[in-house]
Task: structure prediction
Amino acid sequence: MEDVSKIIEVDNVKLNEAEDKVVYIDQTQLPNRLIYLETDEEKECYEAIQKLKVRGAPCIGIFAGYAMYVLAQKYAGLPYEDFLKEFHRQREYLNSSRPTAVNLMWATKRMEDVVTANKEKPVAEIVKLLGKEAKAIHQEDIDMCDKISEYGLSLLKDGDGVLTHCNAGPLATSHGTAQGPFFLAKKKGMNIHVFADETRPLLQGARLTSYELQRAGVDVTLICDNMASIVMKQGWVQACFVGCDRIAANGDFANKIGTSGVAILANYYGIPVYTLGPSSTIDMNCPDGDHIPIELRDPEEIKNKFYAEPMALKEVKCYNPAFDVTDHTLLTGIVTEKGIIYPPFKENLEKLFKK
Ligand code: MRU
Result:
């Protein structure tokens, strides 16, 4: 198995410039196999996102930027109007792969804006600009993660215990958002103890978070989701750090299913709850959590996946929402690359975007 430092230092998504393909780690194979895949096929790009080979809100955005660039080269010979039409169709297709993480729509819009803003230029030149934009999206994410990690770490002190849910580390984004501060703490010689929820049903916490942290030498303990309450009650958790897939204008936020339960428990025990993510995750067009579309996934993920044999009768009904919404009243602060936003979230988020 390759060293995790490679996962942290090597991009989970990148461009193969020689062959004009987008390269990505197949995250469904971790922690047992570190496999890189590459593609320039539209359907494979869609499936990479839909099947969670590429996952985590910012990582999906970075991947979508490169995918749109690579795919655009296939019809770069078309006249401008036809090129735009095809580009738009492709954008809608990729957007339909997963509905909740706003970073996907944000990145594909940024790419289409390049096409429309440069309509006077030859299509071949527009395609080059698309390559530049995709790389800019990626570089900005790296810079944002580093700032988020610094802000996040400023909330912790040596010896603190932090509970996290799902995976918002270097696999889900470039250098990590909700888990970025833990890597930074390690680098600075601080001792932070992390409790990683396993995160049913797809086990991102077990398969990805505990893997990344353990291999990086961070003090991590894996727990089942239903153990969060006991570690909080013991006094072992001083803060909860979680990621986000979309933050509404009032501070309600969608994140991996189970996050809302963690926040409710933390409030009961008086533990602060922070969501950490790039400002591209804030959707000011979405007034509150009721307006965030929640992805429903295949019941097989609950009954069969990861088990040697089915763990429920085939005919049993299942409800498998991929995300839930945490009410902003349960949230202590939102950590972005622009700083930490505290309540009242509606007013303070508005101010942030007016700057
Ligand atoms: O379904 P996933 O694995 O894509 O869900 C990921 C999460 O919910 C993360 O916490 C979120 O995307 C933030 S990643 C930096």
User: Anything to note?
Assistant: Residues 1-7 have pLDDT under 50 and may be disordered. The chain has two domains: 4-145, 155-352.
